[in-house]
Specification:
The chain folds into three domains: 127 residues, 2-Layer Sandwich (Beta Polymerase, domain 2); 117 residues, no CATH class; 66 residues, no CATH class. Strand 3 and strand 4 form a beta hairpin. 52% of the residues lie in helices and 11% in strands. About 2% of the residues have low confidence. It has 326 residues and is of the alpha+beta class. It has a five-stranded mixed sheet with strand order 3-4-2-1-5.
């Protein structure tokens, strides 16, 4: 887990997820997303920021309970929005009350959100919705617990191997002299040393391959509980229908903006999906209809084929420059 340092500047923070959709319940977790202008050394030197421009923090708030917070470096965030990414783009279209940080740079970014508009939305939103639909009937990762045990075993072996490799090298270089009764067991052996190094490397590669959590397209315990209760994952169903409704609206009437907040539109209907009011076959039929509607909406959409890349580039430079120089 990580979060921005004191050298970074957060220009925009908003509550996302069910609270921004207007479908939250008293027990809903709080999710936040922020846009960050990194310290100058990230832009002027060789410093990196987070994991490919992303940092995540999870903590317990005394009032809100569990909070998950994702931070995007400005260039990463802008690139995602230029691609009409359905996870990032809604941050620019929240209701005013859902912003908790909105600096002058953040205000400028929100004010220019229409620069990102393009027909790319059809491909990204429908693609993501298709993925949610496929995962709706996923299966539980039954190997999760054994894999955790195996991974822990590999990590223990690596620690032991590190100690043995270091010991043999010290014996080889004359930096370690063992008592006579231990020398028969612990002594320098070139073949054994090279074998240990090779085994340690193999063990590290194995750890990378072991999946000790939910596998892509599968579910952890909470998801499994939903499937067991309703026959399918109602959260995936909720997001499939929500995304495609937003997509169709925006393709036909971009001048009305991206309607993230669903109160007064279809919040109650979407909430009923999450509560399991529909059968899996009914959700699939709804989704199929929405996918067809999106194809038709794309043909007549007034959106440009591509966003204004030059204007987005200049905006990003202005945001970085003004923040670093303030």
């Amino acid at each position: 887990m990580a979060k921005p340092s004191d050298k970074d500047t957060t220009i925009l923070t908003g509550v996302i997820g069910s609270h921004s959709y207007g479908t939250a319940t008293p027990t809903s977790d709080f999710d936040y997303m922020s846009v960050v202008i990194a310290s100058p050394d990230v832009y002027l030197g060789l410093a990196n920021w987070g994991s490919a421009g992303t940092k995540d923090d999870v903590y317990e708030d005394p009032v809100k309970g569990l909070v998950e917070h994702r931070y995007f470096e400005i260039k990463k965030f802008v690139g995602m929005c230029e691609g009409m990414n359905p996870n990032a783009l809604p941050l620019l279209w929240l209701e005013p009350q859902h912003y908790e940080v909105l600096t002058p740079q953040g205000q400028l970014l929100v004010k220019n959100r229409e620069l990102f508009n393009s027909k790319k939305m059809y491909h990204t939103f429908s693609g993501y919705a298709h993925g949610q639909l496929r995962a709706m009937g996923g299966v539980f990762n039954d190997a999760e617990e054994p894999n955790k045990i195996l991974k822990a075993g590999h990590i223990k072996f690596q620690k032991w191997a590190d100690g043995m490799i270091d010991l043999m090298r010290r014996i080889r270089d004359g930096k370690e002299v063992l008592p006579e009764d231990a020398a028969d067991i612990y002594h320098y052996d070139e073949g054994w040393l090279n074998a240990l190094i090779a085994l340690r490397t193999h063990s590290k590669e194995e750890v990378k391959r072991i999946k000790d959590g939910p596998i892509t397209g599968r579910m952890g315990k909470k998801r499994k509980d939903l499937r067991d209760k309703f026959g399918y994952d109602v959260k995936f169903a909720f997001h499939t229908i929500r995304l495609m409704r937003m997509c169709n609206e925006f393709l036909r009437h971009p001048e009305e903006g991206l309607k993230v907040y669903r109160k007064g539109i279809d919040a109650d209907f979407l909430y009923s999906i999450r509560e399991g009011a529909f059968k899996e076959e009914e959700i699939k039929k709804m989704a199929d209809d929405l996918f067809e509607e999106a194809k038709d909406a794309l043909k007549s959409s007034p959106l440009p084929d591509l966003p204004d890349h030059a204007a987005i580039h200049n905006l990003t430079m202005d945001l970085i420059r003004s923040t670093i120089n303030q």
